[in-house]
Amino acid sequence: MIIGVPKEIKNHEYRVGMVPASVRELINHGHKVLVETQAGIGIGFTDQDYIDAGAEILATAQDVFAQSEMIVKVKEPQAVERAMLREGQILFTYLHLAPDLPQTQDLIDSKAVCIAYETVTDNQGGLPLLAPMSEVAGRMSIQAGAQALEKSNAGRGMLLGGVPGVEPAKVVVIGGGMVGANAAQMAVGMGADVVVLDRNINVLRKLDAQFGNKIKAIYSTADALEKHVLEADLVIGGVLIPGAAAPKLVTKEHIANMKPGAAIVDVAIDQGGCIETSKPTTHADPTYIVDDVVHYCVANMPGAVPRTSTFALNNATLPYIIQLANKGYKQALLDNQHLLNGLNVINGHITCESVAEALNFEYVPASKALND
Ligand SMILES: NC(=O)C1=CN([C@@H]2O[C@H](COP(=O)(O)OP(=O)(O)OC[C@H]3O[C@@H](n4cnc5c(N)ncnc54)[C@H](O)[C@@H]3O)[C@@H](O)[C@H]2O)C=CC1
Ligand SMILES: CC(=O)C(=O)O
Ligand SMILES: [Mg+2]
């Protein structure tokens, strides 16, 4: 198969779909890899590194899209990239379609085969291609939140861990999954007072086993959420209903009643955000203020640490890229139900039920759409 790796074009996005070591694996399986010039330069990989791994370098994204049977990316395709997709071409990347009607409509119109990293599943009930970036974003959320709390950023002027004789900040993490557990780990390490809310009791049990009495793991009722959010200095939004738009758990009334200078980091912003006042921001201008509360809502947080993130992402995606390349999309999807769960759009049909529901499109089961 001919596999194409364009340079990412989202704001301050330096990750790349494949590192040279992944290219070498594909070449060893007998495939051809086309890489856009300078695609990896943001993390120190030169064109020569890709050539040494067996890739061919192309001058433009247009060339890569035109000549490749499968495009491997990191972030959702931007409008100019969507315009280059064609019928039957495989697109393997994050999509986050539920809050993004224009992208969804363009992918439907393209008739491409669009497989989303974030809805691929595994045997343990996890999301193996989302997990590594959730680890990164969860850990980063505490750094970002600590900065947002600084006075010069309009925060309350609090140090997360306090100092001897002065209370630490209260960090409230909503959603105790991959993002939430990693945020809690960092917040505990910095000496904050940490509460994690989740509505899955097994998740709360797991957190209890991991952290003991270093955190409070609380069942997430509307009551508990309101109490802890109003007491918080820093709120981390890390909930997910796979594929679906995030539920708006923190309302604009909550925000208005939070402490002046408190901060929120809405990591779930890529699925629309779990805070009513959230709107996506970029690394170039990551925060804004609503009712004296500092909002950080960057939708590609791992892009800030692209070296760590690209390797972590590639470690997870490579086996699936190889399956798709070796077998072709139809056989690879039919052979692996977990990869099939990643199929969001094919041949103009929406095959992810939660995306169809969020955007009012007809849902066509993947097994049916594959044979259309
Ligand atoms: N902004 C960014 O750069 C990044 C964003 N993310 C996003 O972060 C979000 C979280 O991802 P993961 O931690 O991997 O998901 P996960 O599935 O591991 O955890 C989500 C948790 O939310 C809980 N939850 C769902 N509804 C809830 C509710 N109403 N109240 C309390 N808890 C609830 C679930 O029980 C689950 O434990 C996703 O939207 C993901 O796409 C992930 C990586 C990077
Ligand atoms: C998951 C995601 O949105 C990211 O890594 O940018
Ligand atoms: Mg206020």
UniProtKB/TrEMBL annotation:
One MF annotation (Gene Ontology) recorded for this entry: nucleotide binding
Keyword Mitochondrion in record: no
Name of this protein: Alanine dehydrogenase
UniProt xrefs under InterPro entries: Ala_DH, Ala_DH/PNT_CS2, AlaDH/PNT_N, AlaDH/PNT_NAD(H)-bd, NAD(P)-bd_dom_sf
Record's keyword terms, sorted: NAD, Nucleotide-binding, Oxidoreductase
Reaction(s) catalysed by this chain's protein: L-alanine + NAD(+) + H2O = pyruvate + NH4(+) + NADH + H(+)
GO terms of biological process kind: L-alanine catabolic process
EC number assigned by the record: 1.4.1.1
Start and end residues of each Alanine dehydrogenase/pyridine nucleotide transhydrogenase NAD(H)-binding domain: 149-297
Residues reported to bind substrate: R15, K75
Protein's organism: Thalassotalea agarivorans (Thalassomonas agarivorans)
PANTHER family found in the cross-reference section: ALANINE DEHYDROGENASE (PTHR42795:SF1)
Every Alanine dehydrogenase/pyridine nucleotide transhydrogenase N-terminal domain range: 4-137
UniProt similarity note: Belongs to the AlaDH/PNT family.
Active site: H96 (proton donor/acceptor), D270 (proton donor/acceptor)
List of residues binding NAD(+): S134, D198, S220, V239, L240, V267, A268, I269, D270, V298, A299, N300, M301
One GO term describing the cellular component: plasma membrane
